[in-house]
Specification:
By secondary structure, this protein is of the alpha+beta class. The protein contains 3 helices and 4 strands. The protein is flat.
Length: 99
């Protein structure tokens, strides 16, 4: 219940980030997910992955992403005092151009 309230509050109070911020965040999230998928697919293989090939695959995977939702939880300690947890809800949906 508390988490749902925080998500609703974050959704209503947070200004929508610019489209560029969405694109950057999408690339970061997609790259991280792709890296995880590659690690699982290699099953701990000893050979070193080719960074250029990894980047090509990550960008190809990102091109297939049309939307995503992410929930970020952040809690800071400032001057030894633990501040309240902050929740950020992020939703992204690409706009398709109709021709």
């Amino acid at each position: 219940m508390k988490r749902d309230q925080a998500l609703n509050a974050a959704n209503m109070q947070s200004p929508r980030p610019a489209a560029d911020s969405h694109r950057v965040m999408a690339r970061i999230i997609c790259s991280a997910l792709f890296l995880l998928a590659v690690m699982v697919a290699h099953d701990g293989a000893a050979d070193k992955p080719d960074p250029e090939e990894w980047l090509r695959k990550a960008e190809a995977a990102y091109d297939r992403v049309t939307s995503y939702t992410a929930v970020f939880h952040k809690q800071q300690r400032v001057a030894g005092k633990l501040l309240p947890e902050e929740t950020i809800l992020l939703k992204y949906k690409s706009r398709s151009i109709c021709t």
